[in-house]
Amino acid sequence: MGALFLRDVRLGLRAGGGALVGILFFLAVIAVVPFGVGPDLKLLARIGAAMLWIGALLATLLGLDRLFQADRDDGSLDLLIMAADRHMLALTILVKCLAHWTVSVLPLVIASPLLGLFMNMEPAAIGATALTLLVGTPAITLIGAVGAAVAVSLPRGGLLVSVIILPLTIPVLIFGVSASYGAVEDPAPFLAPFLILAAITLFFAVLGPVAAAAALRSSAD
Amino acid sequence: MRLIAENLGGERGGELLFSGLHFAVSSGEALMVTGPNGSGKSTLLRIIAGLLVQAEGMLRLEGTPDAFEGLAAAAHYLGHLNAMKPVLSVDENLHFWQSFNGRGQYSIAEALEYVSLGEIGHLPFGYLSTGQKRRVSIARLLVSDRPVWLLDEPTAGLDKASETQFTGLMRGHLTSGGIIVAATHLPLGLEGSNELALGAAS
């Protein structure tokens, strides 16, 4: 399993891995928001957490369709499925998701404080947003694994994957943003939505790989 | 160890390709699956590998060595695709499959030596020629120990010398008590192997 994690991380970082696409997209989205919204610093600060979350959500969706398709194209997926007696397929998928998250999503989380400055957010809000992104984005990747597994045999499944999983990621977005606001706006709670966010991630850490494994098994041809 | 199929039938896209297949392959034996294009050779191999579900019949491996839990776990599958990443080096690719599949047999350097590619382990897989890629893929069979080899057109893209070499590797596998099921158009040069002709009757 360690070998699979290392391989996927290496693949993501080498040329053509696409790890940079997500972060560039994230940078582009957040960098243009102040131009679109105008120089109202208060407004920017207020929508900052939400914009960071939406940008991170969309950037996370970008590379997800290749999660299994690259392995399918070169025949590796067959061998991963055949090894299911040795490595439970759901576990294999979980490791692939973790590697994908480490390479393509973790950089977004790391870059988010810098982008928070673009949005004139105060330090507490920036910290809370980065923390909620850290806890919440794995759920998006894990939900995405199900969509990627369903669409694995389709040649242009990219958009379909996003359409399938976007509705399922809405709760992540809602609780992520409300926890970020809760950290700075007094009456709103921080801990409750944050814990729900963590629960969503844990829930999909179990359900996502199992569902994706079932989808991959039935799509083998 | 004995691979047994009883009344096996396979379909693809709802169309029955073959049915009523009976065969048994014992340790040290090879089965050559022949037949025209579309007769279901690859489908049969994928069914044996557990990647497709058979339409009917039974398939089992009797006397599986203790280390393996089932047929799919005891089998190496060499399909049309090489299952290697172009951007990783040959060594990295083989190293991954060795640690993922476990039960290391030959070291990566030895396995590459067996397919006469000892010098190119450091190159990215994508730089290799078609035949060299195939030979790296064959080396994958050697780095982890599996008693059953399922080979789909294993010699596609190989030159004469490599074919002979591969025949030697297959012979070695059979001598050590392995089983080979190969779909092929060309004779693989294994004497005493049984032949299963698909699509001949219709």
Short summary:
The complex is a heterodimer of chains A (221) and B (202). Chain A has 221 residues and is mostly helical.
Descriptive tags:
heterodimer, A: 221 residues, mainly alpha, 9 helices, elongated, B: 202 residues, alpha/beta, Rossmann fold, five-stranded parallel β-sheet, three-stranded antiparallel β-sheet, 5 helices, 8 strands, transport (chain A), cell inner membrane (chain A)
The greatest interface here is: A-B, 26 and 31 residues
Shape of chain B: globular
What name does the CATH topology of chain B carry? Rossmann fold
Total strands of chain B: 8
* CATH level 1 class label of chain B: Alpha Beta
Radius of gyration of chain B: 17 Å
GO biological process, one term (chain B): cytochrome complex assembly
InterPro entries (chain B): AAA+_ATPase (IPR003593), ABC_transporter-like_ATP-bd (IPR003439), ABC_transptr_haem_export_CcmA (IPR005895), P-loop_NTPase (IPR027417)
Keywords (chain B): ATP-binding, Cytochrome c-type biogenesis, Membrane, Nucleotide-binding, Translocase, Transport
Pfam families (chain B): ABC_tran
Structure description:
The complex is a heterodimer of chains A (221) and B (202). Chain A is mainly alpha-helical and 221 residues long. Chain A has one domain (2-219). Chain A has nine helices and no strands. In chain A, α3 runs antiparallel to α6 (89-118) and α8 packs antiparallel against α9. The relative contact order of chain A is 0.15. The mean pLDDT of chain A is 89. Chain B has a single domain (27-53, 67-197), classed as P-loop containing nucleotide triphosphate hydrolases (Rossmann fold, 3-Layer(aba) Sandwich). Chain B has helices at residues 41-48, 90-101, 108-114, 130-143, 160-175, and strands at 2-12, 15-26, 30-34, 56-62, 75-78, 148-152, 179-183, 194-197. Chain B has a five-stranded parallel beta sheet with strand order 5-6-7-3-8, with helices on both faces. In chain B, strands 2-1-4 form a three-stranded antiparallel beta sheet, with helices on one face. The two termini of chain B are 32 Å apart. The relative contact order of chain B is 0.22. The mean pLDDT of chain B is 85. Chain B: Residues 3-201 form the ABC transporter domain.
